[in-house]
Amino acid sequence: MTLQGNQIYLRLLELSDADGNYPNWLNDPDVCRYNSHGEALYTREMAKAYITSISNNPSIQVFAICEIQNNQHIGNISLQQISAKNRSAEFAILIGEPSVYGKGIGYEAGKLVLNHAFNTLKLHRIYCGTHSENIAMQHLALALGMEQEGIRRDAIFKNGQFTDIIEYGLLNINQVYYQEI
């Protein structure tokens, strides 16, 4: 499965991605500044085990974000905790290559994944949470049309302190569902 954009395309994460820069991103303190990664060494073997574990799991889809011009894998974006019953999923993104920061890659990847979530998977709600100091992710969530839904106080312990998680959500109000009888 490939989702095509202007600067990037998304494809499902593959075992060969573990041989590239992907494991290094999760060991980079700058890349992992606001997420739960980076606390322990992440190895290529761990990356391969993770990719294998998600390959046939219907509750998660992890896409590699790749640049069209050179096919370089620059990040991952995912729909996690996909619930067919509740027609919902959690949105997560990690741009691993700092050289592409500020180029609209996250926004383009986000639009592609939201389109896939709402139009292909027929989901009703997408949500995400981010570290209260992660201003870039907060801007991305709002740019993608998400609304702030709440704050989980002291929800993450990172860099020796507790920090709030800001929650965002987006509803697909164009879908009509029929009540089960």
Describe, in plain words, how this protein is organized in 3D.
It contains four helices and eight strands. It has 181 residues and is an alpha+beta fold. The chain has a domain at 2-122: Gcn5-related N-acetyltransferase (GNAT) (Aminopeptidase, 3-Layer(aba) Sandwich), CATH 3.40.630. Strands 1-2-3-4-5-6-8-7 form an eight-stranded mixed beta sheet, covered by helices on one side. A hairpin with a 2-residue loop joins strand 7 (147-158) and strand 8 (161-171). The protein starts with a strand and ends in a 10-residue tail after the last strand.
Per DSSP, what share of the residues sits in E-state strands of 2 or more residues?
A: 35-45%
Please give the CATH architecture of the domain at 2-122: 3-Layer(aba) Sandwich
Terminal Cα separation, in Å?
A: 34 Å
Order of helices and strands: EEHHEEEHEHEE
| DSSP summary: helix tally | 4
Annotated CATH homologous superfamily of the domain at 2-122: Gcn5-related N-acetyltransferase (GNAT)
Q: What share of residues is helical?
A: 10-25%
Q: Tell me the structural class.
A: alpha+beta
Main beta sheet: strand number and arrangement? 8 strands, mixed
Q: Number of DSSP strands?
A: 8
Short description:
The chain has 181 residues and is of the alpha+beta class. It is 22% helix and 35% strand.
Topology, pairings included?
Layout: E1 2-4, E2 8-12, H1 22-25, H2 44-54, E3 61-67, E4 73-83, E5 88-95, H3 105-120, E6 125-131, H4 135-143, E7 147-158, E8 161-171
Parallel strand pairs: 5-6
Antiparallel strand pairs: 1-2, 2-3, 3-4, 4-5, 6-8, 7-8
